[in-house]
Design brief:
The protein is an alpha+beta fold. The protein has two domains: 65 residues, no CATH class; 158 residues, Heat Shock Protein 90. 50% of the residues lie in helices and 20% in strands. The chain contains six helices and ten strands, in the order E-E-E-H-H-E-H-E-E-H-E-E-H-E-E-H. Helix 2 crosses helix 3 and helix 4 runs antiparallel to helix 5. The longest helix is centred in the N-terminal third of the chain and has 71 residues. The N and C termini lie far apart (82 Å).
Length: 297
């Protein structure tokens, strides 16, 4: 063992023994051991045991210091990975938003009916503003009463402009949430349905929860559904079905945003296709009324 030293010499005078042992880097360790009535061999053994004990203490301290250093490195790596994931999720949403704006702009340039032109122009303006906020990396706004018809309707229109078959009806419901985050979650779910749901029509529905304390936004497609082996891990980072062109980013980011808003995102079991539900707390009546007054003024 490295803790045992090589005896270099031992001298005794009037019951006191000087023991010299080897030390790291060629140095010598001198120990004065009182061994009245004992032999030099006993003194050497006592010194060796003492050095062994001290070495064990130093070794434990070194191991603890190494563990602390490794822990600090791991924490920094985790922080960097979280930052990288956030950046990739933001880029994922930016790509989808730009695609919707570009498709709508092409329709506007091609010439369409006046009533549809006004709706598309309003959608483009709203999405451009949301894109600017995404690029600015601002701190998340506080939760407020969000008009789900306004937010969901704009995202549905952006996907319809891209040639996708999406049905939706206004509900008149409001949620206590963040408008941009709701838009991003719905956008992710519609992108997921477009990629995995096949050519069939996608249905978006906004309805109150059974308890009345919340509202849900569901997105249902008519595709093959989610394989059973993926359902438990579907919202984990990097999880996607075999052969999928996706990177397993969108659903993870959407689930995180739902959690941050005090809600949740779930996959509902269904006979056919996949149905995702975003659950959010309903906006209290007094909050909704106060938001209406603020907007009117």
């Amino acid at each position: 063992m490295k803790s045992l030293r090589i005896l270099l010499g031992a001298w005794t005078w009037r019951g006191t023994t000087l023991v010299v042992l080897s030390a790291p880097a060629g140095a010598a360790l001198a120990l004065v051991v009182r061994a009245r009535g004992g032999s030099v061999a006993s003194a050497v053994l006592a010194a060796a045991l003492l050095v062994t004990g001290l070495s064990a203490v130093l070794l434990r301290r070194a191991v603890a210091a190494r563990d602390r250093a490794l822990g600090a490195v791991q924490e920094e790596l985790d922080r960097l990975e979280l930052g990288q994931r956030a950046d990739r999720a933001r880029l994922h949403e930016i790509d989808a938003t730009v695609a919707g704006i570009a498709s709508a702009q092409q329709l506007l340039s091609a010439g369409i009916a006046a009533e549809r032109y006004d709706a598309l122009a309003a959608m483009v303006q709203a999405e451009v503003q949301r894109l600017q906020r995404l690029l600015a990396e601002r701190a998340p706004e506080r939760r407020r009463a969000v008009d789900l018809d306004d937010v969901v309707g704009q995202i549905v229109l952006a996907h319809v402009a891209r040639g996708r078959r999406v049905t939706w009806e206004p509900s008149g419901l409001r949620a206590l949430a963040r408008g941009d985050d709701v838009a991003e979650v719905v956008n992710v779910l519609l992108e997921n349905a477009a990629v995995h749901g096949g050519p069939g029509r996608v249905r978006v529905r906004v309805a109150p929860d059974a308890t009345g304390a919340g509202v849900s936004v569901t997105v249902s497609d008519q595709g093959p559904g989610v394989p059973p082996e993926l359902r438990e891990r579907l919202f984990d980072w990097g999880v996607s079905r075999p052969g999928s062109p996706g990177q397993g980013i969108g659903l993870h980011a959407a689930a995180e945003l739902a959690h941050q808003m005090g809600g949740r995102l779930e996959l509902r079991p269904g006979v056919r296709g996949a149905t995702f539900a975003l659950h959010l707390p309903a906006a209290p009546v007094e909050v909704s009324r106060r938001e209406h007054v603020a907007q009117a003024s």
